[in-house]
Each structure stands twice: as structure tokens, then as C-alpha cells.
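hiii, so i know i said id send this last week but things got crazy w the move. better late than never?? heres the sequnce for the chain we talked about at the cafe, plus the structure i predicted for it. fair warning i was half asleep when i ran it
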Amino acid sequence: MFTEDTLKGEVILITGGGSGLGLSMAKLFSKLGAEVAICGRTEEKLRKAAQEIGVSGNRVGTYAVDVRDFEAVGTMMHRIVDDFGALTGLVNNAAGNFLSASEDLTPGGFKTVVDIVLHGSFNCTHHFGNLLIGQKKQGSRWGDWKSRRMGDGNEGRNERRNDGRSDGLNEGRKVGRTWGKSGGSVHGSILNIVTTYAEDFGSAFVLPSACSKAGVLAMTRSLAFEWAEYGIRVNAIAPGPFPTEGAWSRLFPTKKFEKQYLGRIPAGRYGDHEELANLAVFLMSDLAPYITGECVTIDGGEKLSAGQFNFIDSLMSRGKLKAVFKMMKLAR
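okay and structure toks below
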């Protein structure tokens, strides 16, 4: 379904793109033609990730930023535009999560997750949206910039990248479709990574994450309607269990936990990163121009059993669970 130019002409920012699912999406976006920007708090991790992403030959930029800092996020967005010439897509992937009995949560622990997930997603979305809205009001759409980058078959010329290399743009592929009441071209896409417990059921033992992700999902649907006027699509993906370094150990401390959890998945296996990345490509690309306000679940049917971490309550007594959670906290 995808070709090496499926995302050509796109410049996509992925928060938390230095590892895990964010890195997997970044690598596939780049492989399929996009120029990619990744941000996170650890500069060294971002540099290593950029080396993996850059194997495709397409440009990648790294930005050491804490998404909780509204002003810093705004500065980053403008830097990306200066560096790449545009910014056409945003993936809100940065997250935090840990297991805890809700009665044992501290205000600080609750706030940390909410600040990263909900406030961080708002900060990035607010700045990104205003950049695009400002461009449309000025009559200088990045959709037009994208068309020039792709080539419309009539110019017969190449355009130069910021790094001096030729893009080879005379390929004859049109981009941009009519969108919004004012008839503007599709020129911006936001993808929010939520969870299967963001709606319907919630989940025990991950209250800060459940509250935060539910807020992000509400933001997804609210802005999909409100910002359609400006040609901005907003969608979400709700992943089930996809093993990642770091996050996996915080949520599955023992093999017993992991085995019990696997038994809840009708598909009988955990997700592969490439499966989620393929879905992200589709939603961010011109293959899905009429899809907005949707949340696509990818979990092997796990959501059907309700409450992603509710099963933990059946593993042992509440007292023993609290002791396990305390040990996990000390290990962080």
C-alpha cells in the first residue's frame, strides 16, 4: 500500500521520538519520504535515534525540549519551521505512566503524568495549530509549499533542500484536496497516541494516565470539528500492549504479570511496532484525507475485556499489590 514517496513533502514532528513507539513511527515516516523532527528531554538519546532514522537519507532534526514547558515548545516549533521550511504534521506521543493503588498516589505523581500527557499534548497542539492557522490567514499555505516540494508536473525544475541537496521534484504527483468550508487544501495533520482505556472503561491502578489520555481523546474530537475549517485533521491511535524498553518494565514488573496479561488478548500475542507505525503512516498521509476525529484501536482485541490493568487485582491481595508497587517506585 505504501511507496517510498507516500509521505514525501511532509515535515512531521514526533514528541517522545527518541525511543519506543515514537522512534518506530519516525523511522517509517522517514523511510516513506517524510522529513522528521523528534523531540525529547535527553539530547544524547535523540542523537542516537536520529542516526537510526537518518538511514533513509531523508533529513531528521532533533530538539531537546520538555513538552511541559509551553514557551519552550513554541520556540521549538518556530525553530523547526526555520530549519525545514515548514511543519505539516504533529504526533503527540510523549507520555508517562506507572502502576499505583489510587489511594497511594501523591499529588506530585499525579501531576507529573498529567503535565506530560495532557498539558504536553495541548502545548504542542496549540502552537502547531496556530502556526497553520496563521499561515492560512496570511494566504501562504504549507499545502502549496508541499506541492512545490513534490512537483506538479508543470514546473520542470528541482527545488533545493535546506541542506543543499536536490529533491528531484518533477514527479507529476498532485497533492492537496479541498477541505473545510472555505475550500482550503489539506495541509495539516495531528495524531495523538492515547490508550484503550481513554474511553468507555478507564483502568484501575493507572489513574493519572487514564485521566490524562481521556483528556487528550476529548481534545482530539473537539479540535477535529473546530479546526476542520482551517484544513487541519486531528485523529488518535489507541494502542494495546506493544513491548517497549523502559515503559514495559514499569507496567509489567514480573513474568507472572506479563503472562496473565497475555492471556487477556484474544489475538494471543503482543503488538509489533511496525503494525502501529503502518497505521500512523496511513492516518498522517494523503491516503486518509477524509478521516478526522477518529480514534483507531490497535490491540489484538484486548479492549473487549475492559479496563487494561484491571486484571492485576486478581493476581494477589491488595496488600501484596501495594508492596509490589512500592518496590517498583523505589526502582524508578
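btw The first strand starts at residue 11 and ends at 15. thought thatd interest u
miss u guys!!
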